[in-house]
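Practice problem: SH2 domain-containing protein
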Amino acid sequence: MQVPQDGEDFVGQPWYHGPLSRQKAEDLLQQDGDFLVRASKSRGGHPVISCRWRGSALHFEVLRVALRPRPGRPTALFQLEDERFPSLPALVRSYVIGQRPLSQATGAVASRPVPRQGPIRRSFSEDILPDGPARTEPLRDRKRSDSQPAGLEHLWRPPEDPPGPGASTVPASGLPRTGSDPVILKTPVPLGSVADSLRASDGQLHAKAPTKPPRTPSLLLPDASGRPPTYCELVPRVLRVQGPPPGHSCPESEVPWWEAEEEKEDRCFARPQAEVSFCLPDTPSCLLGSQNRPLEPEVLHTLRGLFLEHHPGSTALHLLLIDCQATGVLGVTKAQRGAMGVASGLELLTLPHGHLLRLELLERLETLALAGALAVLGCAGPLEERAGALRGLVELAVALRPGAVGDLPGLAAVMGALLMPQVSRLERTWRHLRRSHTEAALAFEQELKPLMRSLNEGAGPSDPGEVALPHVAPAARLLEGEELPGPLDESCERLLRTLHQARQTARDAPRFREAAARRLRGFRPNPELTEALTTGFLRRLLWGSRGAGAPWATRLEKFQRVLSVLSQRLEPDP
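Answer key — C-alpha cells:
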C-alpha cells in the first residue's frame, strides 16, 4: 500500500462524513467495529473517530500537531494516543488494517467503515476561501465494506471520475487551519446550498449570500488576529487579493499570545506600583447565559459531551494554557510587568504584594477540584458511568504529570477531586474501577498518590525540563498564614523545603516560561473548552451568576454540603 503524503485529501474518503452531530453518528453505527470519521462541531471542525464497541458508541478526538514548515516533511501530524502519522488517512489505515485498539483504556477496534451516502453536508461555519481553482471530484454512493481489512483497499482510493462540465468548487476545510498548513479542500456541493459568498463589487464577506455566487473564488481570507484559527464565525474584513501560489503556505498575520516572544529589556529593580490580577475579565459566554442558575442541566450535558470529545492529552494542554495565563507565566504584558516590578507571576507569588495572586490561585485550585468531584458525583446513572468518570480523571492526571504536559497546578486540582472525602468514600465505585479499569486504578494508587504527597511536602519533581508549571499551592498557603499540619519537627522541615522550593521557582521563572511555551507551540485550542476551564466560568457554573459574587469561604462551605448530599444519594451509609 502506498504511503500517504502530507496533506492527503481525507474529504474524498468514504468513511469521512463531514459535519455530523454525535447523535446522528451514533445512529449510523449499528454493529461492534463500525466506525466513521466526522468533523466535530464543538471542536471547531477537528476530526473525531466515532466507533461502536461492546454495544456502546465511543468517540475519539484526533489530535492535530502543527509543525514548522520545512522542505521534505509534513506540516502537521495526526495522533490518537502515542504514535503520530503524516495524514488522517494514514492514521485510519494503520488502526483498521492492523486491528489496533483506538485507545488502550477502552480496547475499541475499528474494523468496518460506514460509508456516507451522498455528498458531504456543509455548514456556514466551515466555509473558507481557497487559494485558487481546485479539482472537483463528484461523490458516488458506496456500499458498506465487508469486515475484512483487505476489503478496505478500494475505500481509500480517490475517485477517478473526471469532473463534470461546469462543476462549481466552493471547498471548505474540515480542520482548523494555521498559516503554515496546506489548504484541505472538501468535495463540491450544489450551488443552491452555499450559505455565504462574495460580492465581486466590493471584495468583502457578507452574512447574506448574493443571488448568484461566483464559481470559484480566488481570494484568500487571512486569519483573524489575536484568536486561535477557527472558522466558527466569519467577520467582515478586507481580503487580500493576491494569494500565494498553489502548494505554498501562507504566513499567519499574528502568532498566538502564548507563542509570542517575550520583549527583551534591561531588567533592573522597579518599585511595585499595585497588586496585579491575571484573572480574565468577564466577557459574554458562549456556554452560559447572562443570568444563569447554578448547575444548569443543559450546560452540564454540553460540558460532558465537550470533554468526552477530547482525549486526556488535549484536555491537559488546554488546562496548561489557562493555568499559565492565570499564574502569570505566559501572556504577561509590559504594563503588568511594570506594575508588579517583576517579569513573572512565579516571582510575584513570593513577594508581599503578591497577596491577590495567591488568593486567586488558591481559589482556582479549589474550584477546579470541586468541578472535578461534581463530574463523578453528578453521574446518577449506572455504576459503570461513575467508574468511567473516575477513570477519565485518572487519565487526565496521568497526562498532566511531570514528564508529560507537566502542569502541576492542574494535576493538584484533579487529584484534589479524586481525594475529596465525598469521592473517596464511594467504595462500590472504586471497586468497580479496580475491576474494570485496572490500569487506571494502579496508576492512581502506585504513581499519582505518592507523587501528590511528595509535591505537597515540597519534595516532588520541579525541574523545568520535565515540569512546565510548578506546584505553587504549598508556598501560597504558607505565605497566606496557613499553619502546617503534623508534629512540630516535621512541620519545620516541611516549612524549610517549601520556602526553598519557592525561591528556586522564582529563580527559574524564565526556564518555566520556555518549557511551557515549548509544550504549547503549534497548539490550537478549542474556544469552548478553553472557556470551560477558566476560573470565572467555573465560578458561575457552580454557584450561578448571582452566587458567584459571594465570599469564597461561604461559597466553598455551601458547595461542600451539596457534594455530601450527592455522595450520600449515590452510596448511602450502611
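Discussion: The chain has a mean pLDDT of 76. Students who identified this feature from the C-alpha cells alone can consider the problem solved.
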